[in-house]
Design brief:
Elements: H1 10-13, H2 17-38, H3 49-81, H4 94-116, H5 120-131, H6 152-184, H7 200-206, H8 213-220, H9 241-246, H10 269-274
Helix pairs in contact: 2-6, 3-6, 4-6
Length: 287
Amino acid sequence: MGTGPRPSSFQESTTEMPTSTYVVLSIYMAFGLLELFRTRLFSKNEQTRNDGIVEVISTVLLLVFTQPAILIFVDYALGALRPEWRGMLSGINIFLAIGLFLILDDMMQYWQHRASHSFAWLYNMHRAHHNARYMSIRLVYRNNIFYYALMPSIWFSAVLIYMGLGWVFAGYVVVKQLVIIGAHSDVAWDAKLLKIKWLSPVMWVVERTISTPATHHAHHGRHYSDPAVNYKGNFGNLLFFWDILFGTAKITRTYPQSYGVENLPDATLGQQLAWPLFPEAKAPQRN
């Protein structure tokens, strides 16, 4: 059963998105205030001067330039090449629409994230996200400035918006960012819930469905010898279910002792923000 007429163009659908943007910003600020008063938002353990620079530049560029540019480019490109696609999905069932975003956005992001830990050139563009030796909402959008431009999920989402699903994306992105922001924060919302025995069956389902602080912190752990660390897995963003489905999940209900990159030399500010424009220095050759 359909849902009735909906916005059929980028210009029309984006009129619904500012509200979701304000909600996401409110969620981000709420977790930020929690960290400010409970875990020192701006002075994390082991942070460096470069950390703040990387986080500010990468976050601002993503939200102000990269993501809007992709949305606008896709709208104009498909408008010229496939005008008949505009708004063609605007009346589909909402559950089918959400399913499309979960597969074409969230699952695609899972596979890109997994690939980023499998191929050296992709990891060089993702490494900035793991260079921080702490967890925080500050890491949510921390990546190489080219990383998001190559993210298939953003491009697929832009296509779905062009096809009339901007009204679904507005709600979907709020839920997704709530989960992701909460999973990165070092104010772990799941810590006390995991200790309540009668909630254990509920949390069993929750931690196998969405990313939680315990499961995502494991991905950021520094030492693989730490039983709570799984930086070779736990790649899920909104849905941790993808890790369960594709065999990369590790659930311990504990938290790593430390965070960051293990067994790699320090990356410069330029390497973190703009590899390959600033490649890693090669080791000197022996005579």
